[in-house]
Each structure stands twice: as structure tokens, then as C-alpha cells.
Design goal:
It is built from 21 helices and two strands. The protein is mainly alpha-helical. The protein is globular.
Length: 570
Amino acid sequence: MQLSEYVLPFATYFAEFLGTFLVVFTASLLIIRDAEFVGSWAWRATGIAFATIASISATSAVSGSHLNPAVSLAFGLSRKMYWGRVWKYMVLQVAAGVAACASVRLLMQKQLPAVEPKAFYSVLDASLVEGIYSAMYCLVALNCMVSLQGNPRGLRNQFFPLAVGFVIIAGGPPCSEVSGGFLNPAITLGFCIVGDQGHNLPRALFLAAAQAAGATAAAIIFFLVRPEELIALGIGVGDGLSCNRICSAVQALNFCGRRKDPTVEDSNSDEEADAEDSARRYHPPWAARIISELVGTYIVVLTFGLCAVATNRVQAEEAGKALIAVDSHLSVRNQTGGAASAPQEAKLVLSTPYSTGAAVLSLTYSLASVSGAHFNPAVTLAVVLSSRDPYVWAEGPTRILAQALGGMAAALTYCFVSRGQEKVVSQHLPHLGPGRDYSWVAVNISEMLFTLAVAYVVLCMTTVKGPRYPKASSTASFDFGYAIGFTVMAAGWVTQWVSGGMLNPAVSLGVATAQVLQAGRAGLEPSNITKMASSLFQYVGWQCAGGGLAAFLFWLAHPLLYKKDPLLAK
């Protein structure tokens, strides 16, 4: 018997251990180094994300590349892996995290940072953001790595490492100033065990439990937005948005049983093959598309809001360790007259569009095959006016309503997370209005033009189908997700100094909601309501104008899509 035959049974687990070790080792080094600098969350998250992308790409063919106990838990709950392997993966991942943290401590000769909430935040706040972004991480992993529509038999998509890795860039900066931005129980427990933080063990376990709860929520949302997965499991589900649909998704969770025997884990019976083929041809119903837009918009707006709050607070502290004030034009200045250095200010401010664009990128890859992944009422308006999707034409108002509700819910969340900060005032929240040295004309034009850019790219990347444009991208190709996400990043970086870089009516509505909530009773006074409504209508109106203009430019650039087929005309 050859030596390779002895190694073969352990190769899967060794690959998972090695990939997790690389991710946690990189994260530990960056977290220790980042503790010496303020506001460098984006670059730390980028390093961890790139290590995650590399590890997923290297180990996916062998182990499936979970590299995170929460992901393994989500796979077990969604019946994508039997529980015997799930528990082994989770133990190996935590062991790899402990080994990586011990290696970093030995190498750097430094104490690991404490696993605890950051200043002005509570354990509840830290657990909430860790749970939400762990749910996002697991949801993207489920949709991109194992969904039936996203991975046809024999033709697995090639964008899943990028989609999963960019979740770290989306969730790292928002969580860094609240919980530390671990997003992985292997990192959380590794820091606690190796860092001699016995007194912080209850907090670490609480954060790990929140991350596990996020995995459970991700499995439920996965079944809600992809009912074809329930059909493949033989579970019936209706077409409406009702309690029966939610109950079916919860009942589908596999808490203790096996998906199948481990000896046939990777094989398919004829019955399963027929069920999976039928599921791949299944078109998502209205309820799944609405839930997809609601969840995606919620995460995008939440990412924007949490990043903006953290950025503004750190800017105020770095400028003079004092509260910031907002002048009559809503431009940010320090009460003492000081200002942060230009490089530091740029590093802080530019992290918001970076994380928001990364969230759009990951969620576009994840949910484009469900609802088109608009997450933006202006984009939905552009798709409706371009007549490129009959489903969107019929359900446009309900989609926009779901996006608006997602934006408002996100505003409630980031206001709740920031409620206990002693130094957080209303000026730390993002505001509707011109930046320093800019006018409302600049705000309106910039919001319209760059919302137009985002909507136009979405139209070109997701709606151009058919033989008349054979070179066009589609949701089955690699480039559609990063094209849309990078457009959001670039547009945000350009407009962040002018208008706040919102480019999305749902984001604008969330910002207005947060301002009203933070102001309390004073915010409900008629004069304040009128002022807020005027600002909101300007933002939303010009952003929707950008969406409408994008539809017109798309029609000019793609006339063959609107040319009638002569055979059909007869």
C-alpha cells in the first residue's frame, strides 16, 4: 500500500486545518499591528480578506474551504454537510485558530488584544454586530458555494472566493470600532485562550455564541430566498409571504440528523439528481425576491451607517479630542478649530465607500440569481424604465418599498448600537447636506451623475442577454459582481467629500431616519421635519433622476435589445 493511501482519509481535515491556520495567523498579526494605529480598519480587513480569498481558492477542491466554525455550522443546518464532518471541522478550525494565535504571540512577543467591546460599547452591541456580519458571511458562503442555481452540476462558479473574502472588507471596518471585527469563532476563541484572558472567557463565549446565532439566521434566510433548496429536500412551500414559508424554512434546519451517510457524502442518487435538476429550473417566487432585496438593502445601509459613525467619532477624537459641531451648511468642523491631518482624514473617510462597495459586491454575487440584487430604489427604477425585466416591471413598487424598509431598519440598528456612547452626538451620524466648501448644486449633480453610473453598470452587467450581444456579461460570469461593487466604491470615493457619497435613496432615507431618532423630540418639531424632508427629497429626487437617465442612456447604447425580431413580428 502506498503512503498516499494512508494519508488520503486525513487530507480533507489537514487542508481545512491549514487554510484556517493561514487566515487566523494573518488576522492575528494584523490585529496586533493595527492596535498601534487609529482608523486603519480598512487595511486590516483587506489583509484578512486577501488571506481568506487565497485560502479558499487553495483548499476548496479538497475540503470545501469553510475556514470558519460558523460556516461549517451553517452548512450543517442547511443540510449541505452531515453532522459528523461538521463537528470535526469545527474542532479542527478552533484548534487551528489556537495554534495560529500561539504562533503569533511567540513570534511577536506581544500580548494579544483583549476580546471585549471597544470603548463606549457594551457586550450586547458587540454581539449584535458580530452576529449580523457573521450571518452575512455564512449567507454569502451558502449562496455562492453550495446553492443549486449558483453551482450547476459540473460547472461550479469561479467567483465564490472573491464573494466570501470581500465580506471581511464589508464587515471588518464597521465591527472594528464596536467588537474588534473578529467575525470568526476560531479567532475569537484563539485570542481568548492564547492571550491569557480567562476573565474575558464569558465575553468570548458570548461573542462566539452570537456568531453561531448568525450562522443559524443565515441558514433560515438561505431557505427563504432559495425555496428551490426546500423543493430539492422534498419540502413543500407556498408562493406567498406568509408564516407558513418561514415555518418551512425553520423546519428545514437539520439540528442533529445527517444529510446522508458520509461514505456517499459527495455522490448523488438518481432521485436526488432529478430533484436538483428540477430545482435549478425553478424561478424564485415574489416572496423570495422581496426578502432578498430587504435583507441585501439592510446590510448595505447598515454598513454605510456603522462606518460613518465610527469614522466621524474617530475624526473628532483625532482632531482635538472634543465634540464636533456642524455649521449652517452641515459641514463638519471641530469646536476648537483644529482639524485632523489630511492623510489621516482621507484614510478614515474613504473606508466608508470601501466597505459599502464590498458589501454590494458580495451580496450581488450571492443574490443576483434571486432578485437581480438591486438593493437600491434608483437601480430598480432604472430596470423598470428600461423594460429589461418583466418581473421587476410588475413588482417595482413592492421592491422599492422593501428597500425603503430595509434602509429604515438599518438606521434603527446603527442608532441602537451607538446609543450608549458618551461622546456620540447627532453630529457623529451621517448627514444630508453639502460637505465643507460645497453647495447644494454640487450635491445634487454629483448624486445624480454617480447614481447614474451605478444604475447603468447594473443594467449592462445583469440585463443584457441574448444572441444579439454575444460578448455581454451575465450573472453566470465572473465579472458582473466586482464591476458593480467597484463602481459603488469609485463613486463613493469621489462624492464622499461633496455629498456624503450615498448614491442610494435607501441610504438617504436611513440617514434621515437616524437623524430624526437621534434628535428625539426636537427632531419632531415642524421646522426640523420640514428641513429634513426638504433635504431628503433633494437627495432622493436627484438619485432617482440618475436612475431614469441611466435607463435612457442604456436604450441609446443597446438598440438591438429593443429591435423586434422579424419572425416574431410576422
